[in-house]
């Protein structure tokens, strides 16, 4: 699976866990944060960019749904904004 797709799915999991009322799901939030931070670092280092992906891997509608989640992540972790911008999200 392409790194960017995996990163966006991990981001979706983070949002779902963060908003969950279940303790066992909320317990996963810190690991999600750690994973997202590391995946962002790797994606930037590898110069991953959403515009480089074939639409078969990353349909634009999927990316559009993720933009809201990215914005939520940036609100919670403002230091991540420059990483997300590099990925063109």
Write the layout of secondary structure elements.
Layout lengths: L2 H17 L3 H4 L2 H17 L14 H17 L4 H6 L3
Helix pairs in contact: 1-3, 1-4
Task: Let me know the largest β-sheet.
Answer: none
- Determine Rg (CA atoms, Å): 13 Å
* Percent in helix: 55-70%
Order of helices and strands: HHHHH
Could you give the count of β-strands?
A: 0
Structural class by sheet pairing and helices: mainly alpha
Query: Outline, from the CA principal axes?
Result: globular
Poorly predicted regions:
none
Q: How many domains comprise the coordinates?
A: 1
Q: Give the N-to-C terminal Cα separation.
A: 19 Å
Average pLDDT over all residues = 88
Number of helices: 5
Binned strand content: under 5%
What kind of oligomer do you see?
A: single chain
Signal peptide: 1-17
Keywords: Signal
Protein described:
- The protein is mainly alpha-helical and 89 residues long.
- It has one domain.
- It contains five helices and no strands.
- Helix 1 runs antiparallel to helix 3 and helix 1 packs across helix 4.
């Amino acid at each position: 699976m392409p790194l960017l797709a995996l990163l966006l799915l991990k981001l979706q999991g983070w949002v779902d866990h963060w908003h969950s009322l279940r303790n066992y799901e909320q317990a996963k939030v810190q690991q999600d944060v750690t994973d997202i931070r590391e995946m962002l670092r790797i994606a930037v280092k590898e110069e991953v960019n959403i515009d480089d992906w074939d639409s078969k891997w990353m349909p634009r509608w999927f990316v559009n749904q993720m933009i809201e989640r990215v914005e939520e992540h940036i609100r919670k972790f403002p230091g991540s904004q420059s990483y997300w911008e590099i990925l063109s999200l």
